[in-house]
Structure formats: structure tokens, C-alpha cells
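Researcher: I'd like a candidate sequence for this fold, 301 residues long. If you have to choose between options at a position, lean toward the conservative one.
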């Protein structure tokens, strides 16, 4: 008798309930992205009136055409990609190296240094002192203001330190007997075994860098360093202002087809899709390496 024939009615009912639950959960996770997409390609007047629910109506792509016609969009996209890549790499390098140092008992005044690092997670001088510090360092209107702060991510350091302390010290001892120094042991032993935590930090650092917005508002006045998110936000404000003018100016509205004229709702949905599509495309690759890193880090000895 096969295993499937031994299953009782309760077993089958439980399996059906589990599949139904996770199917519903998956739909609930996907539906917000689906709704944003169908709203971005539907007739704008219907979107504004809240008449789009489960399928698009009056499909058009004028919203995307208008967004991609922004002159500064390529430069802004380049800045966002550059800060995401460089910022993530610097965050990984700093967190892993300092985490390795803090995991060593022989590190000079390790507890004192570590406590100072932890203190920065709870105490903050505020925006004005930070702005004055950046200005003194020449980071205002400077691309480096996007990436240098990644070197001081205390939370990432704590994650790396905690994980590296779980790695058996005998692995390093064998390499030390063979003459390997700290740096060689860090590169050859610690980093390969730390792939799970490194992948986790990389995912959240990259998403945080890509979605970052306020640093552009506070520290940038030069348009050549505007990020994609900030540029699209400026576009949203202009589109909203134009839509408000058309609503109040009846003479101008009569001479235009308002069905697909940009409004606040349709523009917001379109901008949201433009900013999340790169993350949706890249995240599965990160997730694959993340799972692979977990498997590699789980096999020890």
C-alpha cells in the first residue's frame, strides 16, 4: 500500500486548507502591485474617480511616455544606480570588516569601542548638526554624501559581529598555524562562511539606497546629483499642479480631452511602477544568492 493511500480524510483536508491559505496569501501579496500597474495604464479620469478595481479600462501608455520624456531622467537613474551599487558594496565592506574586528577578544579596547558604536544607534545629534558636519567636510552637493555614511551602519556591524562569533574558532586556528594573518583569514575563511548575513545586508542596503529620498532633499541643490526618486517627485508635483489648473480653468479644459490628461492619481501610480520595477527584477536574483548563501553557511565541518 502506497503512502498516499494511507492518508486519511483529515490529512487531505489539512493539505487543501494549507494550499488554499498560501494561495490566498500569495494573491494578497501580489494584488497591490497588480492594482498599481493596471491603474497606471488605465484611462486617467477613471483612475481619478476610483472606477478601476480588478482589470484595466481604456488601456493606454501615455503616462509612461510622459515620464520617460523627462530630460533629466537618464542622469537621475544613473545617480540612483551608482549610489545603490557603491553604497551597498561600501556597507558590506565596512560592516563585515569591523564586525570581524569586534568579534576578536584581542582587539584593543574592544568593549569600549563596541559600546561607542552601539551608542550611535540610540543617540542622534539631529539634522542641523549633521548638515553642518557634512558642509564642513565638503559633502554638500557632492555625490559622496550618498555613499560615505554607509561606512557607519551600526546595525549592520552588530549583525556581522554576532554571526561571525558563531563561526567555530578552530577554523581560524588551523589557518593561523599555517601562517595566515588576520586579513587572510578574514578573506579566505570568514567571508565565505558569512554569505547568509552578507546577502541579507546586501538586500536591505540596496533597497534602502534605491528608495532613499531625504538625503537629496537636505544635501543637494545641484540637479546633476538628483536621484530618480527625487526627480520623479518633482515631476509628480508639476503634474498635480497642472491637473489642478485644468480643473479650475474651464476654458482650457473644454479644449482638451481630459480622459488621459495626467492627474495626481495616475501619475503617482506610474511613478511607483517606474521605481519598483528595477527592484522587482533584481530582487529574485538576490533572493537566489541569499538562499544559496544560507545553504553554504549551514554546512560546517
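Model: Candidate sequence:
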Amino acid at each position: 500500500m502506497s503512502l498516499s493511500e494511507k492518508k486519511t480524510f483529515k490529512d487531505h483536508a489539512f493539505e487543501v486548507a494549507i494550499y488554499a491559505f498560501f494561495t490566498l496569501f500569495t494573491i494578497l501579496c501580489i494584488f497591490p502591485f497588480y492594482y498599481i500597474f493596471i491603474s497606471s495604464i488605465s484611462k486617467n479620469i477613471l483612475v481619478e474617480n476610483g472606477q478601476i478595481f480588478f482589470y484595466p479600462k481604456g488601456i493606454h501608455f501615455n503616462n509612461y511616455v510622459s515620464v520617460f520624456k523627462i530630460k533629466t531622467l537618464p542622469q537621475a537613474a544613473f545617480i540612483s544606480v551608482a549610489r545603490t551599487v557603491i553604497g551597498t558594496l561600501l556597507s558590506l565592506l565596512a560592516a563585515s570588516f569591523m564586525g570581524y574586528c569586534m568579534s576578536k577578544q584581542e582587539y584593543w579596547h574592544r568593549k569600549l569601542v563596541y559600546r561607542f558604536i552601539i551608542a550611535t544607534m540610540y543617540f542622534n545629534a539631529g539634522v542641523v548638526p549633521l548638515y553642518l558636519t557634512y558642509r564642513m567636510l565638503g559633502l554638500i552637493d557632492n555625490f559622496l554624501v550618498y555613499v560615505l555614511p554607509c561606512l557607519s551602519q551600526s546595525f549592520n556591524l552588530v549583525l556581522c559581529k554576532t554571526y561571525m562569533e558563531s563561526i567555530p574558532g578552530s577554523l581560524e586556528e588551523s589557518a593561523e598555524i599555517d601562517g595566515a594573518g588576520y586579513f587572510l583569514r578574514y578573506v579566505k575563511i570568514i567571508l565565505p562562511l558569512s554569505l547568509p548575513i552578507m546577502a541579507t545586508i546586501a538586500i536591505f542596503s540596496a533597497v534602502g539606497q534605491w528608495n532613499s529620498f531625504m538625503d537629496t532633499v537636505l544635501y543637494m541643490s545641484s540637479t546633476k546629483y538628483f536621484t530618480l526618486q527625487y526627480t520623479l517627485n518633482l515631476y509628480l508635483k508639476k503634474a498635480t499642479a497642472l491637473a489642478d489648473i485644468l480643473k479650475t480653468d474651464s476654458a482650457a479644459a473644454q479644449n482638451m480631452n481630459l480622459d488621459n490628461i495626467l492627474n495626481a492619481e495616475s501619475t503617482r501610480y506610474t511613478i511607483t511602477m517606474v521605481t519598483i520595477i528595477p527592484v522587482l527584477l533584481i530582487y529574485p536574483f538576490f533572493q537566489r544568492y541569499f538562499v544559496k548563501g544560507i545553504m553554504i553557511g549551514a554546512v560546517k565541518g
